[in-house]
């Protein structure tokens, strides 16, 4: 089981203060990693750091502040240490019909889920390439697999992330920097509750399409990320991995 160990590794997890990002942080720390959780809400990060313990640090940073991403990467490597793993998990949600979604709203979602992911992946790749090692994990969505109402911006960004991964894999694999993408299904998280908490028909429809009739847990994504980040997944590169309880196959 040593191939699943992250002992001695350092992982940056954007959106690590809650939900799926927090679930990944818990799993990585249990596997021996030191984790830096990143997000905009410092209060939330402090609470998460207390929960995660001594092997967790935090940094308040808005990933959509693209001009500051290069400095963020440099400062992180200088003050916190060499980053072995990047998890792009920061997220936001917009529930709105396509014809009612403005250009600025669409762009705001893309900034969080796509443009920041590219900027962070690009800048961390620059320091991973000379070391000839590194792991980057994107977080996509099942909306990249199936059409869903009222998530046009989110779906577009999460689909584009897959193309981003494939293109960068073709460039970075030669330098032993691996990039994979996890597509969570419906996972218990603040974002899920925001999306369906007041929409019982939507919740009922979703559960009816999951063979097990239950939502996943953040740790389910954490375990998948652990496999991809550890030596257990050292020959896995450019994979799009749904973790959805069979929802895509249950239609």
From TrEMBL:
One Pfam family linked to the record: adh_short_C2
Matches recorded under CDD domains: SDR_c
Superkingdom: Bacteria
Matching PANTHER family: 3-OXOACYL-(ACYL-CARRIER-PROTEIN) REDUCTASE (PTHR42879), 3-OXOACYL-[ACYL-CARRIER-PROTEIN] REDUCTASE FABG (PTHR42879:SF2)
Family of the protein in this entry: Belongs to the short-chain dehydrogenases/reductases (SDR) family.
Protein name listed in UniProt: 3-oxoacyl-ACP reductase
